[in-house]
Amino acid sequence: MLRRTVLVASPFLASALAAPGISEDPTLILSASESETSARLLIRAATLTQRAGRLNEALRLTHAGRELVRGQLYEEIASAYLAVLWGEYALLRHDRSALEEAQELARGLRGRLLRDGDLQQIRLQLALLSTPSASSRLCQLTLEVWQQPELMLLDGSWHWARGGFIVKSLESLILTTYLAQARELFQAFAGEVASFQLYEALRWGWHAIRLRLLAPPEERRAFRRLACSRGYLRQAIVAL
Among 27, 100, 217, 225, which one has the highest count of C-beta atoms within 10 angstroms of its own C-beta? Predict the structure, then answer.
């Protein structure tokens, strides 16, 4: 899948090439230096391995990418993704030390690249693991960011589309079993289906969420088989 990754230095060209219908899965990378190029490729590889359920490998790749860009702006993206991965590890393994590592990384984010909405979302995703009130705060934030997209980074470094932010919030609510809040938030976007069809990974994410919240068990099991065969193990877990 990495063969679809394209390195470009022009934001204008990246925007043009990432337009809906141009790429099935937008994997364009803006690069300011050789080390950043390598780090971005490692992070991209990490997203694919996370999607396929290989969390330990995703952590190793992301850590390696972060080391390459120490002191550079892109370090914040690598640190943010590392925080998300450690949070997921803590959830799946019930590992307190992993959660503490994720929280420490999140506290260190200063918004040099990420926007305020991104920072709040990461911190609330982690808070879901220990603080029930975080679920309602995450829902409110998600609605606010949908109305004010300037609150999220949309150049492809973190999100490619507004729908990506919503899917991340919904997945977090589902995986931490806040299903009532997830259903309420999902319904708020039920009429925005086109916004979740812009690229392949987003379509799979939205479909998994819809099935988990609305579909009968047999339909969810059928999706699980298909998702696993296509490398979307994480979405299979969300759907079940």
Answer: 27
